[in-house]
Amino acid sequence: MPQNIAEFRIIGRIGKITPRDKVIYVTVAANYNRRDGDGWKSDPHWNNVVGFSNVREQIEAAGKGDLVHITGRMRETSHGEGNEVAYRTELIADTFSVLAKAGGEE
């Protein structure tokens, strides 16, 4: 039977790591280049990823500016009632690895 999936993959640099009781949040910038007149301009896209026990230790060992590779699944959540419902797409990390430390060779 075919499996329905919603997955993501991010390769980017860590902006911030925020540990909480049972989860850890990591903000990662993936840079895209876009044309700006005759040149090119960097256009960072910031992604907020949540990690649970399976990847928490790897995320805690990483640091700001590290180049990382994260894969995982996407889940949409909602809260509120009636016309006041807000939706959010969560990026949940299944794998996390540091590709290069900040300031190091890539």
UniProtKB/TrEMBL annotation:
Pfam families found in the cross-reference section: SSB
Cited Gene3D superfamilies: Nucleic acid-binding proteins
InterPro entries reported for this sequence: NA-bd_OB-fold, Primosome_PriB/ssb
Taxonomic source organism: Novosphingobium umbonatum
A molecular-function term among this protein's GO annotations: single-stranded DNA binding
Keyword Ribosomal protein: no
Record keyword tRNA processing present: no
CDD domains in UniProt: SSB_OBF
Keyword annotations: DNA-binding
Protein name in the entry: Single-stranded DNA-binding protein
